[in-house]
User: What shape does this take?
Amino acid sequence: MSLFKQLLLLISVFFLILFSVNFTLSINNIKTYLEVESQGHAQDTATSLGLSLSPHMINTTDPIIKTLVSAIFDRGYYQGIRLVDANNKELVSLSNDKIVEGVPSWFIDYLPMSPVTAESEISSNWLRSGVVYVTINPSFAYSKLYKQAKTSFIYSLITLVLSIGLLMLLLRITLASLKRINECALHISEGHFETIENLPWTTEVKNITVSINAMSQKIKSSIIVLNNKLDEMGATLLRDDLSGLYKKSVFDTDMMNLMMTYRPAYLMLIKVDSLPDLIRDRGNNAIDLLLQAFANTLKQVAERHPETFIKAYRFYGGEFVMLINNGNSEQIELIAKALSNDFLELGKKQSKTDLAHIGVAPVNPVCTPEMMLDSAHEAYEQARLIGANSYYLRSDNNFARDISHWKELVFNCINNSDYSLSYAGQIKSFETSQLLMEEVVIQVHDKNDQLVAIGPFIAMAEKLAKIIELDKGVITQVLAHILSTRVTHAIAVNLSIDTIKNIGFRLWLEKLFKNNPLIIRQLVFSFSAYAVAKELEICLDFIQVIHQWGGRVMIKRFESQSMSPEVTKKLNPDFIRLAREIGKGISLSPQKQEFVQALQQMGDLLNIIVLAENVEADNDYYSLKATGITGASR
Assistant: This one.
């Protein structure tokens, strides 16, 4: 029962009790008053009648005696008048049992009033000549009492209704502030740190509102500090300490995301060939300066071509990579030629005419990142054969044949459900060691029964508009698995952004949720951080809908490059799974430990569960456990 109903009921009961007591006392007082008034009236009548009869009682047969008594009795207020002489002989006896209409019998039974009788002695010539008895008819008192009770009840009822109406209005006004406080608290729990501007006038409620506002502002400030801290630490973790370029882990993520978007791009692999000789001849400090100058050369290339998105990475030692989002081979060749000239000038400063070579390969959307690196390495080896500081650009003539084969495979597998599911990446709780979650993995084999790389398969399914059918089939099989094996942990299912954009899929999913309310919460829909950041509004809308249906969502491969903490707060997912690179080597990296701890603090404030995946080393596993996150897979 709501507080409004409780207060209204409580105050109404108190008012009813007070009304009942007051009404009862009032009626009883009126009844007593009428009884006393009747007693006085009867006595006055008896005395007055006795005085009137006194001169005539000398002769008890005098007819005027009965005339006088009848005249008084005919007024109608008396139930009976009896006159007796000195010997108690009855001279006159009149009675009237008339009942006044309009007074219900239950009222008379509930408030009994006995007839009031008064007497008066009559004296003649100083001798007692008789006694007159006057009895008042209570019907007239009942009539007055009933009218008074009815009037009092009507006015009291009107007062009760008006009082309850005013009480309801007052409670609405007072409790409206509590409702605003409740809404504000719910918004705070959802990560929206708002404040209540118009303070209520009730002192206690006002104090609570001030406390809520203060708490909201403190949490908001803490979130801002954590966001800034995560951004700073995340940016540090993504870049190489020496060169300032991005690390290989960032390249892996960018390549996977690039293949999902089907944008034409080129991969440029650059190696400083003479690095071992330079290290032997000049020492570490000189080599550090050389690598920094080399990295600056790559940065300057991006600055000279602002119309093209160019991102540079340092893998290790003297191996660098550039990812260029441009499908124009002529433009790519101009960039490679300019780099070759820059390396020639830089080599002269180091007294090395042959400093580095460049291998360039177009990004094939149906290949894995490892395959693309191998292709760039082959181009690099060709460049070394050409000459000093040379480059080699591979062609993309084999793309059409590859896509044709992929198309046949995708249609055959999805149309015939010729794929299987496995469950991997078991995440266990650090605290209880219980299984918290595992992830669905799609397995596809080609005609030769060889396992197909799932990344390119999904990419081609999206490109060929078959991904929605695939995602539906996977969800259906997962639900069947949950029902048949009666698992109690969560199962993560990866969904494509193209799928959640589809209205037909959402209607299908809504029906599925309604038909499976007991097990649907075990499904956790998973998205990569990059995909979510790319289609933020679509994902935000989908997550809100899933939460309304009682489902849950996870953002995986989380690192600050793909998604800022502020965006994470806006999305409010149920789970965050860290990118593998963050957990790798965390025991030796205070920066990574601090980043995960700050992310966990933000998760605690926003009710987001933070997880890690594929933690190999025991030291890394225990370091992650010490940060306070919920669990990890190994």
Notes: The first strand starts at residue 78 and ends at 85.
